[in-house]
Amino acid sequence: MATAYINLGSNIGDRRSTIERAVAAIEADLGVSARRSQWVESEPWGFDSPNRFVNLGIAVDTDLEPIELLRRLQAVEKSIDPSSHRDAEGRYIDRVIDIDLIAVDHLVVDTPELTLPHPRMKERPFVMGPLLELCPDWL
Q: Rounded to whole angstroms, how far apart are CA atoms 68 and 25?
């Protein structure tokens, strides 16, 4: 069994409620109870918007292969908000929900579909803070 670290974010709509709904869907789909970080509020990363993000880190124990876990997380994300997270030019935009698989234990994966640990996590305090809260010795 491995521990997967997941970051959820939202910057439009009822942000916390949407994230809570996503966590509940993940827990139901995986049949687990997630451990949660504190809520984090931050400016958008990688694009300009007046809408601040709320983020939450969760940790779940799973026997799923990382790629299968990613696909299930993507299905939860699409079930809540099927719209794209990027505009026509490929730039980030506001989003109702964003779910990122950050790490699975200390596993290293580098495929076209999945890179673990998340390649930009160290650039994002709203990811690192919750991750280190859930797993202080992760680094």
A: 16
